[in-house]
Amino acid sequence: LTTAVQIFPPQRNYAKEIGAKWELFDRHLLATAALFRTDVNGAREVNGSVTTGDAAYYVQGADIEIAGNITDKWSVTGGLVIMESKVTRSQIRTNVGLQLANIAHESFSLLSKYKFGDLFGLEADRLEFGGQAVYRSKIYGGNNIIANGATSVNGTTGWPAPTAANPFVNVPTVLPSYWRFDAFLEGKVTENITLKVSVMNMFDRTYYDAFYQTATPFTQVAPGRTVLFEARAKF
């Protein structure tokens, strides 16, 4: 070891959660709801060229999920998450109260499937169609723990500290929110062979999978409209 090596204590996470469950539609559909909070102490933080290990923040919110059958032919699976994040301790005082970087505070997904083989004189589960809706709120970037350009709950704006390594100071970097819709059609040719066609991102929406905040930020663009053909066989 040299004097340039920094040894930090372990990061400590404290999680709390309370929730409830309901069984609906004659106990065929399970619905859950929960409130949660995670406090993080000893988080790593970079200020210029100096890394410290004494930052703290929390993430709290609500999570609602459903899974199961509404009828014997119609099934759904999905969830909604709404969160809030906040820096509670930082070497840079103006960071306190700001939200975290690279985190979506709202997300939603719902997958619905329906069996309709009986409309053609077949067993109901021989034919199935369905769709999925996915939503993610905007994400602010940041190469520190705070989001650059985002605002805190009291309206304060967060900006990264000026450094020679970051020429994008005072330029908010943000991934926009998006909706994505998928659809599929599936059929059982025999008891052992299933064919499926899926259309992902059916409206060809441009959105971004990931955000990489460095001295030269870049993003990863999600695939556009994609059609997939699938054959499955059981032996």
TrEMBL record:
Pfam families: TonB_dep_Rec_b-barrel. This is TonB-dependent receptor. It comes from Methylosinus sporium. Keywords: Cell outer membrane, Membrane, Receptor, TonB box, Transmembrane, Transmembrane beta strand, Transport. GO terms for molecular function: siderophore uptake transmembrane transporter activity. It comes from the Bacteria. Its main location: membrane. One of its GO terms (cellular component) is cell outer membrane.
